[in-house]
Specification:
Layout: H1 5-16, E1 21-24, H2 26-35, E2 47-50, H3 54-60, E3 64-65, E4 72-76, H4 82-85, E5 86-91, E6 93-95, E7 107-109, H5 113-118, E8 128-131, E9 142-145, H6 150-155, E10 158-159, H7 165-171, H8 175-186, E11 189-190, H9 192-201, H10 210-221, H11 226-235, H12 244-247, H13 262-275, H14 280-288, H15 293-296, H16 309-323, H17 328-339, H18 352-362, H19 367-380, H20 389-401, H21 415-422, H22 428-443, H23 450-461, H24 465-493
Parallel strand pairs: 2-5, 10-11
Antiparallel strand pairs: 1-2, 1-8, 3-4, 4-5, 6-7, 8-9
Length: 496
């Protein structure tokens, strides 16, 4: 890794004005890992620290924003690289006590770099990088300032707090999760005293906003070692403050079709999702797809059952993600994947009609995601093949029926046709007629011709509004139920 020219130019400009300036924090950690340990890590952003006061920084870099009490000036470099377009420059500072366990009550500027580094969370993030020349074209003349042996901890793959771990975690309780997140992202161990302090202070996580907890959880689950991250959150007593429902699966055995407990199966499903670069939605759906099993378990041993756990799990998933302040759109997508993850497909048993209704329920744009979650579910159960013939055959059928009409917009007639041919006024009756026609076409796509649909629409138009509403509601219920009707015998057979 070489230093970006934007970073070198800012440091050079501060040096030229008579001030000290260093790259600092996570970007230095990633620089060391890349250049010394040989890993390929690109910093998320680059931060700079200096002994220049905010007003002095502003004079040197007129294109800036300064609107906080922590001494940070955001400089616009006008770079084409979005990660380098805004670089934050912060004056050396020390922090007073943290009454709310999240933000310092006040900060004081200091003239010493080491004082600034001493306030940081972990040794691997408490290093600074100095450029030894003002020639920004040179890339090799750098010096690492490392008063807390962060380089040694990087070499030994350890997460360790700067100084007393209890003090660090009492300052900012979000650091409890950050330690786990860095461990999962970097595949590092957590130093024993630091780990013990996380356990002892785990209850402080409750004072942190759900939004901040959500953001750290996302970073953890998006790590390649996401499974280890969730296991650590549980081990250190943090998971019960984030997603206690997940821990309900610990020790809950399954039936003869499963060799793992619900907890083990959920983590193994996540592990497959993480190792195969699933999206965030699909990783969370893979982790939570069986979240409803502990509440729906009936019986013990090899013949236990979990009827309707996907329905219960979908409701639980919605509450979990709402609690963690995920967006409505995100929640809807994950809930959909959990709700419909449970399907069995036998080539000779399932009709195109039922698959067509499944596609309508889930949405053609979500079918690939649903199959990904199903594959993670399979691999989390210990089966040898991720995608057996039956699942590949289902994918082919999905592809085929996705070309059939599965929404009102795909019918060969529309509201304009009904107004023109039947003199029908826009309103509820028109909507009911179109949806009843769709229900009939879902069963028989060959009916999707303008001639046949208009003929049927004329007959429906003679019905009362109340009867059409009843037909519409029946069609909606059918759409929800028929997609699973042919799966029920198989679900019963497999006791799920």
């Amino acid at each position: 890794m070489t230093l970006p020219k934007e970073v070198k130019e800012i440091i050079a400009a501060l040096n030229k004005a008579g001030f000290e300036a260093y790259a600092v924090g996570g970007c230095v950690r990633d620089f060391v890992l890349s250049n010394v340990e040989g890993l390929s890590i690109e910093p998320y952003d680059w931060d700079i620290t200096t002994n220049a006061k905010p007003e002095e920084i502003q004079k040197i870099f007129p294109s800036n924003v300064y609107e906080n009490e922590f001494g940070t000036v955001a400089v616009n470099t006008h770079s084409k690289n979005e990660k380098l377009k805004i670089i934050e420059i912060t004056t050396y500072r020390v922090e007073e006590k943290y009454t709310d366990k999240r933000h310092p009550d006040s900060v004081k500027f200091t003239s010493k770099l080491e004082d600034d580094l001493a306030r940081r969370d972990f040794t691997i993030n408490a290093m600074a990088l100095k450029i030894g020349t003002s020639d920004v074209r040179r890339t090799s003349d750098v010096q690492i300032i490392d008063p807390f042996n962060g380089q040694i901890d990087l070499k030994n793959k350890l997460i360790r707090t700067v100084g007393d771990p209890d003090k660090r975690f009492n300052e900012d309780a979000l650091r409890l999760m950050r330690a786990v997140r860095f461990s999962a992202q970097l595949n590092f161990s957590i130093e024993p005293k630091t780990a013990e302090a996380i356990k002892e202070n785990s209850g402080d996580l409750v004072v942190i906003s759900k939004e901040r907890i959500r953001d750290e959880f996302i970073k953890t689950i998006m790590a390649e070692n996401a499974k280890a991250g969730i296991e650590m959150l549980h081990e250190y007593g943090l998971l019960k403050h984030i997603m206690p429902e997940l821990e309900e699966g610990i020790g809950v055995g399954q039936n003869k079709h499963h060799i793992y407990t619900v907890w083990e199966h959920s983590l193994l499903s996540l592990d497959w999702a993480a190792s195969h670069d699933y999206t965030l939605e699909n990783r969370i759906a893979s982790l939570l797809h069986d979240i409803g099993k502990p509440k729906t378990k009936r019986g013990e041993g090899l013949d236990s059952t979990f009827y309707n756990h996907e329905v219960v799990g979908a409701k639980m998933t919605a509450k979990i993600l709402e609690r963690l302040k995920f967006s409505k759109k995100f929640i809807e997508k994950v809930v959909l994947l959990v709700r419909y993850h449970l399907f069995y497909y036998n080539v000779e048993e399932v009709t195109e009609s039922s698959v067509r209704r499944l596609v309508k329920n889930v949405g053609p744009e979500n079918m690939d995601d649903l199959l990904e979650v199903r594959i993670a579910d399979r691999k989390g159960s210990g089966v040898p093949k991720a995608e057996p013939y039956k699942l590949r055959h289902l994918r082919a059928i999905i592809d085929k029926v996705s070309r059939d009409p599965i929404s009102v917009k795909m019918l060969k007639i529309n509201g304009d046709d009904l107004m023109k041919e039947l003199k029908m006024e826009p309103g509820p009756k028109m909507g009911y007629v179109l949806n009843v026609l769709l229900d009939e076409v879902l069963d028989e796509p060959k009916k999707n011709t303008k001639e046949l649909l208009l003929k049927r629409a004329k007959a429906l138009n003679k019905e009362s509004l109340a009867k059409l509403e009843k037909m519409y509601k029946t069609a909606q219920a059918k759409t929800r139920e028929v997609a699973e009707e042919e799966f029920r015998g198989i679900k019963k057979k497999y006791r799920v």
